[in-house]
Every structure is written in C-alpha cells, then in structure tokens.
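Example 197, ligand flavin mononucleotide.
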Amino acid sequence: MHVVLLSGSPSQRSRGELLLDYARDYLERRGIAVSLIRVRDFAAEELLHARFDSAAVRDLQAAVGLADGLIVATPVYKASFSGALKVLLDLLPERVLSDKVVLPVVSGGSPAHLLAVDYALKPVLSALKAQEVLTGVFAVDAQIAYPEGEQPARFADELVERLDESLDDLLAALIRRSGSLEVRLPHDRSEHVRRSL
Ligand SMILES: Cc1cc2nc3c(=O)[nH]c(=O)nc-3n(C[C@H](O)[C@H](O)[C@H](O)COP(=O)(O)O)c2cc1C
C-alpha cells in the first residue's frame, strides 16, 4: 500500500509539513509506504505555465495515479487553500483520484476559516473524482510548535487526538478498500480500526 503526502505550502518552514511528518511516521510504523511531494519543489515555470510534459509533472501524475491514498496538506490563504496547491492540482488528470481515499489536512491562523476545507478544498478533490474524502483535520497555528534545537515539533494534545483519529480512519479505509490485512496495527489503536471497518 502506498500513500502520497502532498504539501501545498510554499513556505520553507511549513506547519503543514510538520503535520505530514507526523502522518508519515504513523503510516510507516504500520508498514505503509509513503512519499512526500511538495509544491515548492517544482520550478515556478512548470506550475505557472502548466508544463504538463515536464519530467517533474509526469512524475507527479504517475505517483498520484499509483497511490492508494493521499494526504493533502495546505495552509489557509485568504479564506481558501493555497493557490500553489491549486496550480499543482490543475496539472493532474481529471479522474486521477477516482479509486483513492483522501485525507485533507489544513492549517490556519484562525479557526474562523475552518470551513475552507469543506467549501474550497473538497469541491476540487471531488472534481478530480476522489471516491472517498475523509472529514479532515484543521489545525490552528497556536496548536503547532516548530522544532527548536534538539526539541522536536510539538502539537497540542487536542490536535494529536484529532490527527490520530483521522489517521486511524485513513488506515481503516485503506484496509477496507484493498481487502488486505498486511498492515500492522499497534495494539492500542487496533480496536478503533476494527470498529471502523
Ligand atoms: C498569504 C497568507 C494568507 C493567509 N490567509 C489566512 C486566512 O485567510 N485565514 C487564516 O486562518 N490564516 C491565514 N494565513 C495563515 C496561514 O494559513 C497559517 O499560518 C498556516 O498554518 C501556514 O501553513 P504553512 O506553515 O504550512 O505554510 C495566511 C498566511 C499567509 C502567508
């Protein structure tokens, strides 16, 4: 099983990517292969001139096409998701998400824009024919502390709880859709996943 983590933040120091690091660790510990694709790793011309034939864009299309699941992370920009992520999603084939499960992860400065996930991001995922879009996680900046020195990134307990629940849901959906029982379920969370199947 393979999950693509898509980071839609143009920032070098991205809170959303810290959430994706957490998700990577969660999934890899359960035997799921993960790869990270960041919007800021693309050349601006590839995105702005919609270079469908560039090697990087073809690699993106192939990686997303082959994935079983996606976690799409984005900051809230002007009450919506980032324009850079939109440009990247525009480069994907129309039905690319038709057999996939997608977990949106959004971070914003204020909870006032919590609904950006539902009103802005989910319709675009639907346009790409995402078969299953999970509820998603919204984090406010105050819940995320950047790593400092030896100190790793820290998240508010309430955020960790919601992340774990959403990742459990993603894992359950991946297992259900593949019919596979190869995924390692740590004892403490196995009950929740079984209940969700
Ligand atoms: C250009 C810009 C626009 C933003 N607009 C909003 C906004 O409308 N609502 C909000 O809650 N936060 C807004 N923010 C704050 C970011 O969404 C927030 O800091 C987010 O966690 C950044 O994620 P990142 O570190 O992964 O890039 C904005 C930040 C920037 C730089």
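Summary: Strands lie at 2-7, 33-38, 69-77, 80-81, 101-108, 132-133, 137-140, 144-145, 154-155.
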